[in-house]
């Protein structure tokens, strides 16, 4: 048995060291394609947070990561591995699109947006509820079914966009544009009302909704009896049965909440940015949510921090491939992948060294104290 | 051989885990060709000491001598090289491998398996002949009964050339008969020169099997005795550090109206095998009914049915006006609402959530009720207050509600669970293995709490595989065998022989009467 590490090392120092290690490896690769790694890092950082528009883009990406990260984390607390965030996000967007396309001529903006957000939650939840039901009542493993539901979601969306929802006369599979009532306000527009000028970015009010969702998840998991039951089930299903939890219903509930959170990606993308229903707007956010949750230790605060890092990588990486042609788009994906690898999958890679280091430090200070006591 | 050095000598072994001083200056010397018992309460440091000897931990200071030679044991590999082998409490076997494959695993002699297996087969044959350790080498380990799996563990250790065997609580999974068989094997090993170290907290086994016994308390070695020259009372006193009453004197019971009635309960498992068969039980307010029996005769399933974790296949339960049967099952939450509390026999599986803090574990099952929970939100302050209250009244140590449940010792976990369930003032209390893994000092306390709850009018059903415990607690004893109730005895009239015969289902009342002149 090893003595536990101090808290600040565990949640502060180790992640920072992991990020630095990742950058060292990334630097070597960048060097290999003949680019000065320091220039690359500078372009990435400036590109991610160097000016207001960049910050706007970074936060816009962050919003998506928060939604899918929370979705994975909440299911994980219930002992369920929800790989279906991608499909649930896709369906969430469909819900938003259907509501707005049907009602944007009749309803006032506030009501329309509220209904669209609700639809995102319901569609995402419904898409998660089917695998949940199959697991709880029929014993089909949720990892398998949620993966398959991603494919089904993609196929359904292609069918709908190509055959049903496509705008009349359009060549590309897109719906008609939403009326203004169906636009979630951009942050730069809101700031303009307040007299602050900020360059245009896709950042919209969905980020506030993401923050509220973080608070909701935290309160739900750690301060309500249902969250207590959900966590009990995740750690020890037998104890949950003993405590009187209907674990089949709880499985469905947890997955529905998880799916609803993933569905909110549709709010950010469809209601906030594209203002029309399009294909492939989920762009892998559902899968990235797994890494976000892993890195954020399944806690809302950690997820916000991890989402910020992912958002910065996304935005900074885009700038990098734009500025330095030698670094292609694929190269940027490699860089992002390495950072995820070091911070997520290898999160405990450096731990034994820290344990040895702090063990040695402690032993020395212990001996010093003992020696001091002996002298006294 | 008067000058033979001891097989094992430990000199002032010291080991700390952070602030916990698990072993302080422990010295002992174990003669070759003997069976030595190491006894002590949970947390007394016996497992730590043996883990040091086996190389799982390294001592902070102190020396280990094997056959008089100082050795440095940094890993189990070193221990095995020094001829020390360990049979763990939880078997380290692979169910889907054969006995032979399990024995060879990790001791293969090359890239091709066949020669290793052939050599191992011969060696197993020899070991089986010499020590009476007969196991079919081609059987799948998963198909073997627990007692034979344990033999495979012992064979594994012997196959690696161990001359010194450490057995950690070996009887925890065995019936009394199997335990006796095990002791015969250990004696055969000793007679052929092996040295056996037996770690246990069961006094009875120490008295039955060992030559010498060491007693540990609070990380120190407090006594060494020749087994012949001591007795259970003295050892118990040495373990706890004060006089212990192994018997419980309790006032006569005043049983009142039935609180829980089970009528012709039957249960079939997934394969359709009847695990419970026509069970009739009545528990009255103010009495303790004890269920005795060898582990695995349906007691666990009976508790699960009574607690609402499983619905009975046939028959029904009656609590007050509510009748529960296959068509009208009640889940554990409804059972609690009916006034039934349940201390499960497997507390790690059912009664607590290891990573939760003690505060959260102290409301498990009652988390929906005021004052712990309002309409939507839980009141953590009320929960923490409740937890410290329980800890105070039941002497749970350390008194720190914010610690992880799994960081408490077994006895303290059990006291917390018991406190949680009794605190609700239930009408019916089901208790499975009330003192499994609990220190002798805490056993006495837990028994007194149960009797106090009984005297307050609670109907209590105790299931235990410890015959002494059932006899000490119960006002009425029912014996289970093969999923049926095969005998009933008044608590005051119970004797070990009769109960033992009932547990083996060979009790013939007439024959017994005929046997008495």
- Overall strand count of chain B: 20
Helix share, percent of chain B: 25-40%
What is the highest CATH level, the class of the largest domain in chain B?
Alpha Beta
Question: What's the CATH H-level homologous superfamily of the largest domain in chain B?
Answer: P-loop containing nucleotide triphosphate hydrolases
The secondary-structure class of chain B comes to alpha/beta
Number of domains of chain B: 2
CATH topology of the largest domain in chain B: Rossmann fold
What oligomeric state do these chains adopt? Answer: heterodimer
Specify Rg of chain A, calculated over alpha carbons: 23 Å
Kindly state the percentage of residues in helix of chain A: over 70%
Distance between the termini of chain A: 32 Å
User: Helix tally of chain B?
Assistant: 18
Order of helices and strands of chain A: HHHHHHHHHHHHHHHH
Low-confidence stretches of chain A: 370-376
Shape of chain B: globular
What does it look like?
By secondary structure, chain A is an all-alpha fold. Chain A has a domain at 63-277. Helices cover 75% and strands 0% of the residues of chain A. Chain A has 16 helices and no strands. The longest helix of chain A is centred in the first third of the chain and has 30 residues, at 109-138. The model of chain A is unreliable at 370-376 (pLDDT under 50). By secondary structure, chain B is an alpha/beta fold. Chain B folds into 2 domains: 8-240, 3-Layer(aba) Sandwich (Rossmann fold); 258-358 and 426-515, Rossmann fold, CATH 3.40.50.300. Helices cover 34% and strands 25% of the residues of chain B. Chain B contains 18 helices and 20 strands. Chain B has helices at 46-53, 76-81, 99-104, 113-131, 146-159, 176-191, 203-209, 232-240, 299-307, 332-337, 347-351, 358-361, 380-393, 410-422, 440-455, 467-473, 496-503, 509-515; strands at 8-17, 20-30, 35-40, 61-66, 69-71, 84-87, 164-168, 195-200, 212-217, 220-226, 258-268, 274-284, 288-292, 314-319, 322-324, 340-343, 428-432, 459-463, 476-481, 484-490. In chain B, the strands form 4 sheets. Chain B has a 6-stranded mixed sheet, sandwiched between helices. A 6-stranded mixed sheet of chain B has the order 16-17-18-13-19-20, sandwiched between helices. The relative contact order of chain B is 0.10. Mean pLDDT of chain B is 87; it is low at 512-517. The A-B interface holds A 1, 3, 219, 223-225, 228-229, 231-232, 235-236, 238-239, 241-246 and B 17-18, 57, 307, 309, 331-336, 342, 344, 349-356, 360, 364-365, 367-368, 373, 376-378, 380.
